[in-house]
Amino acid sequence: MAILDLNDKAKVQAFQDFVRKDPRGQVTQDPLWGDLKSNWGHVYVYHETAGKIDAAMAILTVEAVPGKLLGYSPRGPIADVDNIDLIKDLIQEALQALPDNVFLIRMDPEVEYSDHLNEAYQKAGFVTRNRQIKNMHGNIQPRKNMVLFYDGRGEDAEVITDEDSLMKHFKRDYRNQIRRAAKDGVEVTSGDSEEDVRAFYDTYVMMAHSQGITYRPIEYFLRMQELWQGTGYFKVFLAHFDGKVIAAGIGFSYGDKIWYMYAGSDREYSKHYAPYAIQWKMTNWGLSLGKTRYDFGGVGDFSSDDGLYKFKHGFTYHDPHVEYIGELDWVLDEVAYEEYLKQFK
């Protein structure tokens, strides 16, 4: 068990290779994510077997209650989460390098919920936050995700091997909308340039305004582009119509999946179904890379009453719903922890 020395280029590369290429890999565990979150502190811990990294945990810190730091491992650790002794050892190693005023180490690994795992973590001294949380925003990351599985694991699903089988995987009206977008002249490009990011951002802001939700400043996305440009792990997809970008999406390729992370669209052109054309190209990206999963991201509930679910379900029509274990909290200061939780109630 060791703390990653960020001045050791070879070890940083080994850490990055692990969190990028391990099937469980997550962009949020890459040290570049810590660079993106420039107002957060960061500590990276890893475990080796026979000289090779086989477990990694990135912990980012930020003041979450006055004078106290939250230590958050977003979608981490990348490890055998069933091995709770290993997870506790990772935490204890990290605590040697973290500031003394950290009140909580929070993990939310991308591992499916089970009563057995939930109870095992509780018995080991963790506070678990999952099924008792009813609001989608009651957790930092959504627990319920819509995921397309290329390996055909869903009911009546077939293994997706080419564009034809991918198209057949979607709901019929979604297939029609993808074809309608192409017939109308919608064309989708992809890239990782600053120009691509700026074009994405215009549609992202339009969508946020139309839905009355907050949005990140453009500097966040420009920094993202600067950090990941040329790596092949980051792409911006742009739907063009009549010389104008009318929809966009940002995706990351880590581990065995594509993560559809951000989106935008111009509602004025909704009849051309550009967001469907974006998804067609992005899911094809995953297919071309031999991925197992395409993660459409979270929903409030697996119900047609949920707007996010309604859109994503048509692409994941044959796929099982995915419910993650949620937050696994190692509490160091009970008073600060209770204060912190007030914002999620």
Overview of the structural elements:
The protein has a seven-stranded mixed beta sheet with strand order 1-2-3-4-5-14-6, sandwiched between helices. A seven-stranded mixed beta sheet has the order 8-9-10-11-12-7-13. The longest helix has 18 residues, at about 195-210. The chain contains eleven helices and 14 strands. The protein has about 350 residues and is of the alpha+beta class. It folds into two domains: about 1-140 and about 325-345, Gcn5-related N-acetyltransferase (GNAT) (Aminopeptidase); about 145-325, 3-Layer(aba) Sandwich (Aminopeptidase). Belongs to the FemABX family.
Structure characteristics:
345 residues, alpha+beta, Aminopeptidase, seven-stranded mixed beta sheet, 11 helices, 14 strands, UDP-N-acetylmuramoylpentapeptide-lysine N6-alanyltransferase activity, cell shape, EC 2.3.2.16
